[in-house]
Structure formats: structure tokens, C-alpha cells
Amino acid sequence: MTLIFLLAATTLLRWLADLAWRTALPKRNVLVLGTDQVARSLAEEISLRADLNMHVVGFMSASRPDGLLGDYLGDASGIEDLVREHSVQTVSVSDNIFSGNLPLNALLKLRTRGVRVEDANATLAAITGKISIETVQSPWFVFSTGFSRSGYAMAFKRMTDLLLSTVGLIVILPAMLVVAAVVRLSSPGPALFRQTRVGLNGHLFEVLKFRTMREDAEVDGVARWAQEDDPRITSVGRFLRVYRLDELPQFINVIRGHMSFIGPRPERPEFVSQILQVEPLYDERHTLRPGLTGWAQVCYPYGSNLEDAIRKLEYDLFYLKNVSFLFDMAIIVQTVKIILWGRGR
Fold first, then answer.
1. What is the DSSP code (8-state) at residue 72?
2. What residue ranges of the chain have pLDDT lower than 70?
3. For 135-175, what is each residue's pLDDT tens digit?
């Protein structure tokens, strides 16, 4: 009887949750203006996300390209008629707004009639939680919304960091003593490990961690990316990395003002120099204090090379654009889930 009741209750709750979601987020028909890579990526993401309750009715552009994930509806001259015919709620514009090829008068009329006219890059970023470096051009960063940090917001963020790190350090101090003893006894070398990282405004600082690698991991002094199955990692160190226990001493870095609870993870100066040669936008990460955890850490697996660093930068840019207290709380919840489920590396 209990099993029958649980099955019925679960089915009912799922149905009610789906109904509430559909009510809160009614179906939106989307017309994509443009057929470039941004437009294609947006249509593909929408097709993979049924929870968004969005439907791409088709594409409009000056010419019909091959391989569209949807219908080609002609050029933009008839956009007003198509919006009415397909009951379009959103027009997503992927054409370069500086190209002069957009039907600006028609888009203005649609917007004054209640149709949402959005930048496809912004829509794609909101759906994926990252800003694609390959498709977004520099003017978009200059004129898009976000990237705002008031002095009050940053002061509140710092006060929250101090409160959480002080309380957290007191609570976890017994666990830190146990971890330090286990690390010290499991392999030769000190329990704590200090490493130079790049912090706020490019200033260098020493990050504190429990040692997870052999003492001779970089005996030649050459910085190397940590691999997923790196042979330099000790057996105890592997466990510490999975559950993020190696990063507990960084509460001290937060109290000192070197780091924040939430922000882009600090990187070694040797690697920062390499990445900046490939992607200058990487330096934007240093406009905020680095964090114990961050949006890139909860969304992307452990980075082990230059390409991974670039991919994680896309999530960091999204965080920099949308930084807020509620966003930080959501990241903390995701981080707790990762720690409890042992998904860290």
C-alpha cells in the first residue's frame, strides 16, 4: 500500500510541477533574424531544452543557406506579416547591428506592439549560462547590459565573505586539523601547500591548499597543468580533490582579502601569460576577487590545458556580466551538491 501511495503521489506531484512550470513560463514562438553561427547555435540549444517552452518558427535572411535547423522564411521584408501569421512573441536578432541590413523600422513597430526584440547573443548566453568567445564580438561587450558593480554591492559582497569565512573557519577547524594530519602522515612533505596565483587587478598572492601532490611534483620548477589522472597526485590527495577538502585553507585567503567566496578561480601567473597571448579577454577575470568556487567550477569539468581554460572563461564572463547576491547563492548551492556527491576533481 505504501508503494502504491508513493507512486501515485510522485506522479501527481510531477504533473502539478509541470503544470506550474508551463503556467509560469508560457510557450514562446521565436523568429530568428539571421542565419549565421549564432542563429544556428541558438536554434540548436532551444531544440535541446524542452524546459524552456520555446519554439523556433524559422529563420529570415537575405539568402537561404544550407543546413538550417528549421524553416527558411525568406528575407526580412515581410517580417511583420510573419510575426502575425506565426504568433511570434520573440524576435531574436543575430545579424550584426552595425551592418545596416536590419529592418529597423519594422523591428521598432513590432517592439511597440509588445513583441520582444532580443539580441541573439544575449539570448544564447542566458540559455547556456556562458558567453561564446567565438561568436561574440568586442562591440557586444561594450554595449550589452550587465557588467555593473556598484560600490555598495561590492562592499556587501566583501562583508558577506568576511562573515561566512570567519564562521566557516571556526566550524571546520577540527576537520582541517584531521586533514592536515592525514596529509602529513600519508606522504613526505608539508601538509599545507603555498602557490602564487593572480588575484584582483593582477596582483599576485599566495593561495593556501592542503598538499595533494608529491613533494617533487615540480622539482624542476616548471609549471604544469594538472591532469585528470595525474600520476603526481597522491591517493589521499585524490580523495581531497574529489570532495574539495584540499581548498579548506583558502578560508584564510578570503579573510585576508586575497579571495572571495564566489568568483573566477585564481590561476598561476605562468598560465595566465600563456592564455593572454591567445585570448586577451582572459584579463577581465581579474576585475573581481578570485573565488573559492565559481560559476565555471560548477558548470565545467576540471581544466587541464589551454583549451579548457578558454572554455571556462566563457562561464566566467557570464558571471562577470550577471554578478549578484542571488547568483552567488545559487552557485553556493551547486557547490554543496558537487561536494556531497563527490563530483569534484
1. B
2. 95-100, 219-221, 228, 303, 342-345
3. 787 777 877 778 888 889 999 999 999 999 999 999 999 99
User: What is the tens place of the pLDDT at every residue in 283-312?
Assistant: 999 999 999 999 999 998 776 788 889 999
Number of H helices, E strands in the chain: 13, 8
DSSP 277: H
Run of H or E including 195:
strand 192-198
CB 310 within 8 A of CB 278: yes
Query: Distance between CA 69 and CA 82 in Å, rounded?
Result: 18
* CATH code for the domain defined by 22-143: 3.40.50.20
* Cα 237 from Cα 239, distance rounded (Å): 5
pLDDT at site 97 = 53
Place of cell 565545467: 300
Written as nine digits, the cell of 338 is 558537487
How, if at all, do strands 28-33 and 90-93 pair? parallel
Amino acid, res. 228: E
Cα dihedral: 251, 255, 258, 261 (round 10): 50
Cell numbers placing 299: 558548470
Backbone CA torsion sign across 205, 206, 212, 217 = positive
Residues 6+ positions from 251 with CB-CB distance below 8 Å:
165, 168, 169, 172, 292
Model pTM score: 0.84
Residue 117: HSE in the Cβ half-sphere, 13 Å Cα cutoff: 20
* Domain residue ranges in the chain: 22-143, 151-341
Q: Cα separation of 236 and 212, whole Å?
A: 7
Q: What is the pLDDT of residue 178?
A: 94
DSSP class of residue 324 equals -
Amino acid 156 reads F
- Element holding 293 (H helix, E strand): strand 291-293
State the Cα–Cα distance between residues 287 and 283, nearest whole angstrom: 8
- Which residues make beta-bridge pairs with 30? 56, 90
Residues 274/310, Cβ–Cβ less than 8 Å: no
**What does the block give as the cell for 210?**
592542503
